[in-house]
Structure formats: structure tokens, C-alpha cells
């Protein structure tokens, strides 16, 4: 899957204002695809590297641990 065209990325609200340390989270643009069951995480400084793909429930649990 070409993440640059099929995944909609957004930067973490906790990223540094200078943009040097940024984590991006992405979801597939087409929710009916098999990949829609995943949440993608990448380093914005290396967008061409393969992102980490997490099952949605794993992502939800991860976020809940920080609230």
C-alpha cells in the first residue's frame, strides 16, 4: 500500500512547534478497505519509511493509557 496517497495523515498536537520532533497518525482514506482496521504511526521526518500499523483496538488502548 502506498501510504502517501491512501492514508490521511495528521500531526500530533504534542509535536514541537518547530516541527523537528513530530509524530503523525494516519487512517485510510477509504474506510471500506481492509486496511481501515489499522491506525498508522510514522515519524514525519522520515515519511518514506514504512509506518507502524496498529490494530484500531490497540491504538485505542494506547491512547487511553495516557488519559
The biggest sheet amounts to: 4 strands, antiparallel
Structural class designation: alpha+beta
Apparent shape: globular
Q: If you average the pLDDT, what whole number results?
A: 78
Order of helices and strands: HEEEEH
Taking Cα atoms only, what radius of gyration do you get, to the nearest Å? 12 Å
Alpha plus pi helix count:
2
Low-confidence stretches: none
**Oligomerization state of this entry?**
single chain
Residues in helix, %: 10-25%
Strand tally: 4
Strand content: 25-35%
Distance between the termini: 32 Å
Write out the strand line-up for the largest beta sheet, numbering strands in chain order: 1-2-3-4
SSE topology sketch:
Layout: H1 3-6, E1 7-11, E2 23-28, E3 38-43, E4 52-55, H2 56-64
Antiparallel strand pairs: 1-2, 2-3, 3-4
Structure overview:
The protein is built from two helices and four strands. With 67 residues, the protein is an alpha+beta fold. The mean pLDDT is 78. The protein has helices at residues 3-6, 56-64; strands at 7-11, 23-28, 38-43, 52-55. The protein has a four-stranded antiparallel beta sheet with strand order 1-2-3-4. It is globular and about 30 Å long. The longest helix has 9 residues, at 56-64. Strand 3 (38-43) and strand 4 form a beta hairpin. Helix content is 19%, strand content 31%.
What structural keywords apply?
67 residues, 31% strand
Entry summary:
19% of the residues lie in helices and 31% in strands. The chain has 67 residues and is an alpha+beta fold. It has a four-stranded antiparallel beta sheet.
Amino acid at each position: 500500500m502506498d501510504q502517501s496517497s491512501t492514508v490521511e495523515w495528521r500531526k500530533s498536537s504534542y509535536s514541537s512547534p518547530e516541527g523537528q520532533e513530530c509524530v503523525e497518525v494516519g487512517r485510510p482514506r477509504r474506510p471500506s478497505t481492509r486496511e481501515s482496521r489499522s491506525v498508522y504511526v510514522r515519524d514525519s521526518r522520515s515519511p518514506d519509511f514504512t509506518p507502524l500499523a496498529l490494530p484500531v483496538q490497540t491504538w485505542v488502548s494506547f491512547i487511553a493509557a495516557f488519559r
